[in-house]
Specification:
By secondary structure, the chain is of the alpha+beta class. Strands 11, 12, 13, 14, 15, 16 and 17 form a seven-stranded mixed beta sheet that branches. Strands 1-10-9-8 form a four-stranded mixed beta sheet, covered by helices on one side.
């Protein structure tokens, strides 16, 4: 997930993170041995913030947890759910009852078995208001979840029960066509109650205060440092398939630094940015991956200035999205047409992509003349000619470059508008935004699975990820219909989602900017990495150095 806080993220399927996650691999290609050491080095663009499935809000933490833990299902390269800890799933009662039999060989790194009760505990803990999880809305289709998340019912009333040591029964309040995809997300991972009781509030805040049930365990992370290591987990249920012994991580925030390390053969996989991407367009080691992420501006509608709809629309019409992706980002990203990305869903009748059906060009296409008129209207409504806006964003290269570009566009075209850019480390940005300490926030949302609801749901009134406090009864109705009365009618559900997306864009509840793509240079010595075609997520379970 994409997450910001998508938020995979704003994330994450969550969750909010600008640009793509950067990776690097050191396979020691120039000094390859006959039996190369199964050890690689990767990098992230921002720090790891949590390993607690109930509390993760950013893409880096989500990506790490997906390597050290696993849930009932995982998504394959085509973003389709396949069994992980689940052995057999039976769906009954018109799509509202899931009976899931678990594999018996799941184990935590402390030696304890993974049981059905670990899932029950995890989900009830996440929904408990005391946990303050930002992704409780993902549970809304499970019986009593909505009442639990607002404190009206006890967590124990949730529609999930352990009906045996290795059997889970999940009762839904309504059928959900993508429910197995949803359960593949990290928010639905199991959590060891014994470990949480042992470490208390420190659980998931450091490598030593966390237990793992996935292909790797994590070491060397103190909670604030920028280096850590994933080590092959000998207690993992399918440990024989794992070939890598170690994955060394470090944080590298500057793309030029990472690229230089790649060129000097100290990194063997690197995410390209700007001119690097152009220079390597014919490089045979080049890969282009969809990030399953939409970059956007969210507005704090509790701020009088940011709450002005005409001002928000003027901002949207001033930004030249095509110029942003081709001249500033230069990483393969494409201009956004709506609040979503391609390949989420196709029109069941025509096969047309969702973003094409959901687009509203009048609010998304650059129109400086109209933007100036709307801006003047906003000035009158706000009672002042001189307006000041502050864009809050993370301090990575992509975020700062995008923010600076938007700052220049707005100040060049809209008279008497001053735009400030406030940058800070990603975790600090998440905190500020969560506390409502922002006017405009430049961020992104990464989707964990391919369905428009994964991104559109964050703008519903009751979503904890709705940091800008966007409110629309019509929008909420369409979203409720899509995952309610129309859930099992593909055509009706599709139209509900299209209508919701159009409403959000017309309101400029957020201002979509770009669909993220990642361009990577990958050393040919690294094999077996599974790349998810929808969101570019990497699964290193079967990776190896040749």
């Amino acid at each position: 997930m994409s997450i910001f806080t998508n938020k995979k993220a704003l994330i994450i399927a969550g969750i909010i993170l600008i640009g793509g996650v950067s990776f690097g691999v050191h396979a020691n290609s120039k000094q390859a041995k006959s039996a190369p050491e199964q050890k690689i080095s990767l990098y992230e663009a921002t720090n790891l913030t949590s390993l607690d499935a109930s509390k993760i809000t950013d893409g880096v933490s989500s990506a790490q947890l997906s390597q050290v833990d696993e849930g009932l299902y995982r998504l394959n390269k085509n973003s389709q759910p396949i069994n992980a800890l689940a052995a057999k799933t039976t769906i009954s009662n018109h799509g509202k009852l899931y009976t899931i039999n678990l594999k018996h060989n799941g184990r935590w790194s402390d030696g304890q078995k993974v049981t059905a009760q670990d899932f029950v505990y995890s989900w009830e803990r996440t929904l408990n208001p005391k946990t303050k999880s930002e992704f409780t809305y993902l549970f809304t289709s499970i019986k009593n979840a909505d009442a639990i998340m607002v404190g009206k019912k006890a967590p124990s009333t949730l529609g999930v029960k352990a009906t045996g040591k290795y059997q889970l029964k999940v009762t839904l309040s309504k059928p959900v066509p993508y429910f197995k995809k949803l359960l593949a997300g990290i928010t639905f991972y199991p959590i060891s109650q014994k470990a949480v009781e042992k470490y208390g509030s420190k659980y998931g805040t450091t490598a030593k205060t966390t237990v793992y049930n996935g292909p790797f365990t994590l070491t060397g992370w103190t909670g604030t440092n920028d280096k850590w290591t994933l080590v092959k987990n000998s207690t993992y249920r399918d440990h024989k398939v794992v070939k890598l012994n170690k994955i060394n991580y470090q944080v590298i925030k500057t793309s030029s630094t990472a690229y230089n390390l790649y060129q000097s053969h100290k990194l063997d996989m690197v995410t390209l940015a700007g001119e690097q991407s152009v220079q390597n367009k014919n490089n045979p080691e080049l890969k282009t991956l969809s990030a399953g992420r939409v970059g956007f501006i969210q507005y704090n509608e509790k701020d009088k200035t940011a709450a002005n709809k005409d001002l928000r629309t003027a901002i949207s019409l001033t930004i030249n999205r095509q110029q942003l992706v081709t001249k500033i980002l230069e990483n393969g990203s494409i201009a956004a047409k709506t609040f979503g990305v391609r390949d989420m869903l196709k029109n069941p009748k025509t096969g047309k992509d969702f973003v094409d059906n959901a687009q509203t060009p009048s609010e998304m296409t650059t129109n400086i003349a109209k933007a100036k008129t709307l801006y003047q209207t906003a000035q009158k409504q706000l009672g002042t000619k001189q307006l000041t806006l502050t864009i809050t964003c993370a301090n990575d290269d992509t975020s700062q470059q995008t923010a600076t570009y938007i700052q220049g566009q707005l100040m060049n075209h809209l008279k008497n508008l001053k735009v400030n850019v406030r940058t800070m480390p990603f975790p600090s940005m998440l905190t500020k935004v969560s506390q409502g300490d922002f006017q405009l926030n430049l961020t992104s949302w990464g989707m964990d699975f391919a369905d428009p609801s994964q991104v559109l749901t964050i703008l519903t009134s009751n979503s904890n990820s709705n940091m800008g406090h966007y409110q629309s009864k019509t929008y909420d109705t369409d979203m409720n219909n899509a995952d309610g009365k129309d859930a099992m009618n593909n055509s009706n559900r599709y139209q509900d989602l299209v209508k919701a997306a159009k409403i959000a864009t017309k309101d400029q509840g957020v201002t979509p900017l770009y669909e993220s793509r990642s361009r990577l240079l990958v050393n040919s010595n690294l094999h077996g990495v599974v790349y998810n075609k929808f969101n570019g997520a990497m699964d290193f379970r079967t990776a190896y150095v040749k």
